[in-house]
Amino acid sequence: MSAFVTRFAPSPTGFLHRGHAFSALTAFEAARAAAGRFILRIEDIDATRRRPDYEAAIPEDLAWLGLAWETPVRRQSDHMADYGAALRDLSERGLTYRCFRTRREVAEAIESAPHGAMEAFRGAPLPPDEEARRVAAGEPYAWRLSLDAAARALGGFGGLAFVEEGEGPQGERGEIPARPELGGDVVLARKDVGVAYHLAVVADDALQGITHVIRGHDLFEAAHVQRLLQALLALPTPAYRHHRLLTGPDGKRFAKRDGAQTLRELRASGMTPDALRGELGF
């Protein structure tokens, strides 16, 4: 088995653009340079925004760029049982709790904390009788990771760290002490929409043997809570290589929500894969 395994893991919530191309090429070229493996994973757990046409376009766009990947491709929506097992493991050990607060109530709780918006949300389980009543009433809730319980289970977070082989947004490199408290009691799953990103990605990276996580530095902060989940679930910790975010002439990073020009549109306009790779520095 290769000692170097990385992945590109897009969400089918829009068509790929230059920023995606840069990230995919960065991971692909790193795998090729290391004589390693490159995996494509479809992170389609957002059932409210994913679309079949977006998913179908992903392999088309990547093949046009000249990328090749292993098959079959893992689709997160086909493996919900894996994430459910991880959540049950954490819950049976008292590391999660049901949170019935709305997003607005969470925001208000943060604002009312001693340091306001500088603090992340920290909550606690409800009294058992009240929790049972609200569950029976069908009220929506989220499963949150309890940082307090996690700290007790691990004897604190002082021994947690991850290796940054790329560069964080502030130039962070080398061994980085994990600070999961920065993210607060993160959501691991919701009653109505299922598992959340952090739990799914940690489970997938372990199941697929990912040794190097290569992604944009907008996800650098996510490494802190993901390192905590790896420790709690006794999963291996990959090395991280965060890379810069590609920006347009206006200085803003390319984003689906801002209507960034898609790879499909570039292809239709006559741009060649070699021309785009050259533009991106490959």
Characterization of the model:
The protein has 282 residues and is of the alpha/beta class. The protein has 2 domains: 1-78 and 247-282, HUPs (Rossmann fold, 3-Layer(aba) Sandwich); 79-200, Glutamyl-tRNA Synthetase, Domain 3 (Glutamyl-tRNA Synthetase, domain 3, Alpha-Beta Complex), CATH 3.90.800.10. Helices cover 37% and strands 16% of the residues. It has 10 helices and 11 strands. It has helices at residues 18-33, 52-65, 80-92, 103-111, 128-136, 147-154, 197-207, 222-232, 263-268, 273-279, and strands at 5-8, 37-42, 74-75, 96-99, 142-145, 161-164, 174-177, 187-190, 194-195, 212-216, 239-243. It has a 4-stranded antiparallel β-sheet with strand order 4-5-8-9. β8 (187-190) and β9 (194-195) form a beta hairpin. α7 crosses α8. The chain is globular, with a radius of gyration of 20 Å. The two termini are 27 Å apart. The model has no long low-confidence stretch (mean pLDDT 92).
